[in-house]
Amino acid sequence: MDNNQYKLAIVGATGLVGRTALKVLEEKNLPISEYVFFASSHSSGKELVFQNKTYIVRELTESSFDEGFDFAIFSAGSDTAKKYAPIAAAHGCIVVDNSSAFRMEKNVPLVVPEVNPEEIKNNHGIIANPNCSTIQAVVPLKALDNKYHITRVVYSTYQAVSGAGRLGLEDLENGAKGIPPKKFAHPIYNNCLPHIDVFLENGYTKEEEKMINETRKILKRPGLKVTATCVRVPVTNSHSESINVEFEKPFELEEIRETLSNYPGIVLLDNVSKNEYPLATIASGHDEVYVGRIRRDESVENGLNLWVVADNIRKGAASNAIQIVEKLIEYDM
Ligand code: A2P
Q1: What range defines the domain where residue 33 resides?
Q2: Is 1 among the domain residues?
Q3: Which of 80, 83, 312 gets mutated to test ligand 1 (max ligand atoms within 8 A of its CB)?
Q4: Active-site residue flag, 239
Q5: pLDDT score recorded for residue 80
Q6: Is 88 exposed, middle or buried, given 0-12, 13-18 or 19+ CB atoms closer than 10 A?
Q7: Are residues 85 and 160 in the same domain?
């Protein structure tokens, strides 16, 4: 393929992740010469300004991919992905899907470019973008697993309302005015809700199950001991996570800091004497994963605690998907 000849579709271009994808694409200089933006029938004909040009949003239909695309980024939920991603793939388009529809399928790579970029080469037309909470967790975990071999992970998350889309943001804003929530089961304003996605029979939520299963798949550690508690907090954007890790091998804290700070995509922010540690307000608008509060878990033999923060709409969704497209171009796929 010649330089600058790629054609990219964005499905769900009018949504929170879709619009952020346009912003991230404007910041980058990808060799893409043609863009087409799709959404539901309800947005058909709407105008989107991208790279100083006005585009008309098209309704996604079964014939949308007939004209031929190299790549498509889907951010339109699982139902849309299940119906249209196979159609796109059948027309030779490689789909990067943000939903959970295909993540655990055997033939679908689940990719974080800093962690397992080579998996991209095993795609059969669909590549899955992991869950936002998983993406930011596995970047530092992979850096440490390479060196010390992880034996157990305990996640506790503090997730922003933007992860629940436009309605999530509205519930927080309206909650401050006493208006009851539409998206969440309880008011998110002044509350922490230990409830993200639906509850499963074992008492976990689907979000927690996603973190557990996706971590195992991405790190290629099917038997890894992982548990999670996922909590929605009244923060507009960027997820924060406490990650407790146990290793097979002993470690020095200074070595851990060095390993993390040398790993691609990580910003180390760990200077408690100056009250410096990752914050949602620091990570928002950036693509890096911020890591700090690094300290030994003194209750076990080789245990470590980390505080990990990233922009859930950028690194947790749009930017990760675009990084995958960049890799597809690099690999000439
Ligand atoms: P629309 O704006 O036309 O409803 P969010 O998660 O922020 O709510 O965004 C969801 C995105 O997915 C929107 O762009 C939305 O388009 C799009 N979408 C939802 N359902 C469909 C569908 N059936 N076909 C195409 N796009 C869809």
Answers
A1: 6-130+317-330
A2: no
A3: 80
A4: yes
A5: 98
A6: buried
A7: no
